[in-house]
Design brief:
- By secondary structure, the protein is α/β, with parallel strands linked by helices.
- The chain has one domain: 3-Layer(aba) Sandwich (Rossmann fold).
- Helices cover 44% and strands 14% of the residues.
- The protein binds adenosine-5'-diphosphate and magnesium ion.
- The site of magnesium ion (MG) has 5 residues, from helix 1.
- It comes from Kocuria oceani.
Length: 265
């Protein structure tokens, strides 16, 4: 089972969008996928849940509760997603914000940082791919995701704060590699919202290329209405017209992440 964390220190760069379209690509490749919404904003849940979650429904927060008495198994919270072969560990409401605060106040012990990892270990026979949408910070939930993951994909966009944020998340990745998860592979930086027609976009791309070398991954994902529309409609890009190139781009990123599971075609 491959576990991919999609992370960035910044919001609005396209973590959820990337997680969503990579999930679609994996489902089309016939993989059994568990998408984990580890962001209290719950955007991935809104996009992927087959049924809108009830306010009282269990979610990822209930599986991470530091208080063992109130902790649920991942199995109790998983729901079907909109696509065949895809399940979702959902998040809705304030519960995950509360758990994030709770975990942040606890000492950063391996136990507190490894709860998601321990939960996912029970899923190894059920899924080929677990993909985790991280919150836009380097807090306890992101650390849990990085400790659980076999690989991490960083997302950024060609703009000042986003590009500078890459260094911060890279340093968190290095810390986790050093202390808690030496197996974690940093698979590089996916450049999203690429707008080759603007000077600022071109300059930030150049800066990222100079700073990160071949860790800046190609293809870049352009800013396109279809990327957003598909997600808002709960559809795959492959179901929209004139999106062949975008579909190929996400397929290429998935293939790079999972070369032994996804064939070239
Ligand atoms: P994050 O999860 O990092 O906060 P989102 O994935 O929610 O970011 O993306 C932020 C906004 O930008 C969303 O409205 C999303 O639909 C839009 N968006 C993301 N990537 C693209 C893209 N490549 N082209 C057009 N819109 C995009
Ligand atoms: Mg998001």
């Amino acid at each position: 089972m491959d576990i991919v964390a999609v992370a960035a220190q910044k919001g609005g760069v396209g973590k959820t969008t990337t997680t969503y379209h990579l999930t679609r690509a994996a489902a089309r490749a016939g993989l059994r996928v568990l998408a984990v919404d580890a962001d209290p904003q719950g955007n991935l849940t809104s996009a992927l849940a087959a049924e809108p979650p009830q306010p009282e429904a269990l979610g990822v927060a209930d599986t991470l509760n530091p208080d063992a008495e109130h902790r649920y198994a991942l199995d109790d919270v998983i729901v079907p997603a909109v696509w065949e072969g895809v399940d979702l560990a959902p998040t809705s409401g304030e519960a995950l914000t509360y758990i994030e605060d709770e975990l942040t106040q606890k000492p950063k012990t391996p136990e507190n940082s490894s709860r998601l990892k321990a939960n996912l270990a029970t899923m190894a026979d059920r899924y080929d791919l677990v993909i985790i949408d991280c919150p836009p910070n380097r807090g306890a939930l992101t650390v849990n995701a990085l400790v659980a993951a076999t690989q991490v994909l960083v997302v950024t966009m060609p703009a000042l704060y986003a590009a500078n944020g890459v260094a911060h998340i890279f340093s968190s990745i290095q810390e986790v590699q050093k202390e808690l998860n030496p197996e974690l592979k940093n698979r590089g930086v996916l450049l999203n919202l690429w707008e080759p027609s603007t000077i600022a976009s071109r300059e930030w791309r150049l800066w990222l290329a100079e700073t990160y070398g071949d860790q800046l991954l190609e293809p870049y994902i352009p800013k396109r209405e279809a990327v957003k529309t598909a997600q808002e409609a709960g559809m795959g890009l492959d179901e929209l017209p004139k999106t062949e190139e975008l579909v190929r781009f996400y397929d290429a990123h998935l293939q790079r992440l999972l070369p032994s599971r996804v064939g070239r075609n």
